[in-house]
Every structure is written in structure tokens, then in C-alpha cells.
């Protein structure tokens, strides 16, 4: 085979590999394009007045001006931020504790991992109905309290309803957090710990100077996805509590205005605000990761 033939064969092979690559990337690219198109379409609808029946009417910034003076919108913002600030750090802290414990469990390790992950595999509807039974006036939690001689608690009282919903969100999501932390823990080379023990480092020093720094990539990923999930809280609140202002979130307010009030333009404006909040928080996280995330191993 001549040099020219070898070159032509190599070019043909490279072109074939590129073709297969583009073929496999096509479904993902189409899916991402559809998501971006829907997001842009929603942002555009935020500048219209549309009741689904008639054609959308462009009204400029009127929906956003109404938002500024809408007290229920600010209630939804406050409740959503409350859920974010409660659930994200608590899920990460409990998930890390479970992961550290599972990392030391040798017998029945798979059983404990399955038991911990099981709530995450359940649908939001199933989890919400289970906790609805727990929070009922004669439900499991109040029966336990009565067994200890304590009085009943109205778990869905407006003063504590947000905390009750947050507890359910933590319960259902902590298994996923724990398993990803466990995966991160098991990827840390054992030689680091052995060297630290030889140098006389105690358990806390090893956790502080080896485990935590090498878990920062996993922690960063979990912080980002947990924040996005918390901002999008809807099913848990709507099924467990219903349309009450004490637990009104941005997602439930969007649903209420879009499908109960048929105010698609206004709901789209709220959606645009939600997208903006998630984008800002994610960009801040990406910017801050340079200061605390270590990818060295």
C-alpha cells in the first residue's frame, strides 16, 4: 500500500468516526435544543396577556410590574428561599454522616445502602401520601407523641407547615446524597489515610485535611443539583398541604396562575423569574468553586 493510499484510508477512518460521533450526539443535541426552545418560548410569553383561548396579546413589561406589587409572589419567593435554606444544608450534612457510616459498614452494607436509597426511588406522590398519614391529627407522629405523654401537634399549622414539608423533602432525598458522597469517599486513595496515620494524625485531622478537601468536587455537584431541585419544589407541597399561602412556592404559584387562573402570560413571567434565580445561584456557585473545590487527588 502506497503512502497516498494509507493517508486516504486514515482520512476515511477519521471521517467515519466523526460521523458516528455526530450520530450519537444528535439525540442529546435535539433534546437540549427543545429544552432551550421551550425556555425561550416561556420567557417570550411573559411579555404577553394570554388566557389560552384567545391569541396572546403583547403587553410589554406589564406582567413584571404586576409581580412587583403582588404580595403572594413575594410570599412564594420567601417560602421557596426558606425551603432552599433549610433542605439543602440539612440534606448535605445528614447525607455525609450516613455516607461516612456506610463507608465503615462491612456486613450488610448493600442492605443498608438499598434501605437508604429506597425513599428516593419512590414517586413524589407516594412519598407525599405516606407523610400525609404521618402528619395527620391521628397519624403516626402524634401517636408516638401520645405514647410518651406529649400532646398532639398540628403539623400542617401555618406556623410550622414549611418545616414539616422540608422534613419530608430531606427524608426523601438524603439517600441519593449519601450514596454519591459514599462514591466520593471510596474514590479517595487509602494511601493518604495510611500516610496520615503514620504521621500521627487523628481521626478528626484525617477527616479535616483529607476527606473534606477530596470530597469537594462531589459536594459542589450535590450543592448545585440540590439547589435547583429545592427551587423547583412543587409536588410535595401541593399534595401534602394544598394551595395554602403558608407553603406557597414559586412552582405552585406558577401552576395556580397558569392552570387555575388561565393567566399563562403572568405565569410565564413568574417562570422567567424562577429561571433567573436558578441561573444566578448556579453562576455564583460556578464562580465560587474556584475558591473551595479541589480537583487534585
Automatic annotation (TrEMBL):
Signal peptide: none
Superkingdom in the source lineage: Bacteria
Record domain ABC transmembrane type-1: where: 77-285
Gene Ontology CC terms: plasma membrane
Residues that span the membrane, as ranges: 20-39, 81-102, 114-134, 160-182, 212-231, 267-288
Major localization listed first in the record, in broad terms: membrane
Protein location: Cell membrane
Gene Ontology process terms (BP): transmembrane transport
Pfam family, one: BPD_transp_1
UniProt xrefs under CDD domains: TM_PBP2
Keyword terms: Cell membrane, Membrane, Transmembrane, Transmembrane helix, Transport
Membrane topology classification: Multi-pass membrane protein
Family: Belongs to the binding-protein-dependent transport system permease family.
Protein name: Carbohydrate ABC transporter permease
Species of provenance: Herbiconiux sp. A18JL235
Amino acid at each position: 500500500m502506497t503512502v497516498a493510499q494509507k493517508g486516504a484510508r486514515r482520512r476515511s477512518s477519521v471521517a467515519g468516526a466523526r460521523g458516528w460521533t455526530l450520530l450519537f450526539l444528535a439525540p442529546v443535541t435535539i433534546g437540549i435544543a427543545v429544552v432551550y426552545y421551550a425556555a425561550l418560548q416561556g420567557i417570550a410569553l411573559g411579555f404577553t396577556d394570554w388566557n389560552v383561548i384567545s391569541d396572546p396579546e403583547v403587553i410589554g413589561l406589564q406582567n413584571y410590574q404586576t409581580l412587583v406589587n403582588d404580595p403572594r409572589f413575594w410570599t412564594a419567593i420567601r417560602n421557596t428561599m426558606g425551603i432552599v435554606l433549610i433542605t439543602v444544608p440539612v440534606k448535605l450534612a445528614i447525607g455525609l454522616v450516613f455516607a461516612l457510616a456506610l463507608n465503615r459498614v462491612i456486613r450488610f452494607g448493600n442492605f443498608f445502602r438499598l434501605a437508604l436509597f429506597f425513599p428516593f426511588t419512590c414517586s413524589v406522590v407516594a412519598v407525599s401520601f405516606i407523610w400525609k398519614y404521618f402528619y395527620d391529627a391521628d397519624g403516626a407522629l402524634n401517636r408516638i407523641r401520645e405514647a410518651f405523654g406529649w400532646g398532639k401537634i398540628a403539623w400542617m399549622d401555618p406556623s410550622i407547615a414549611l418545616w414539616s414539608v422540608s422534613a419530608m423533602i430531606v427524608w426523601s432525598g438524603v439517600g441519593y446524597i449519601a450514596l454519591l458522597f459514599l462514591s466520593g469517599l471510596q474514590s479517595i486513595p487509602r494511601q493518604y489515610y495510611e500516610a496520615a496515620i503514620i504521621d500521627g494524625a487523628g481521626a478528626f485531622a484525617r477527616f479535616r485535611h483529607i476527606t473534606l478537601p477530596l470530597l469537594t468536587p462531589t459536594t459542589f455537584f450535590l450543592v448545585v443539583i440540590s439547589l435547583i431541585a429545592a427551587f423547583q419544589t412543587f409536588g410535595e407541597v401541593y399534595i401534602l398541604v394544598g394551595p395554602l399561602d403558608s407553603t406557597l412556592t414559586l412552582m405552585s404559584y406558577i401552576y395556580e396562575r397558569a392552570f387555575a387562573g388561565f393567566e399563562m402570560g403572568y405565569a410565564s413571567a413568574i417562570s422567567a423569574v424562577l429561571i433567573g434565580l436558578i441561573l444566578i445561584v448556579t453562576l455564583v456557585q460556578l464562580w465560587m468553586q474556584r475558591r473551595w473545590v479541589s480537583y487534585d487527588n
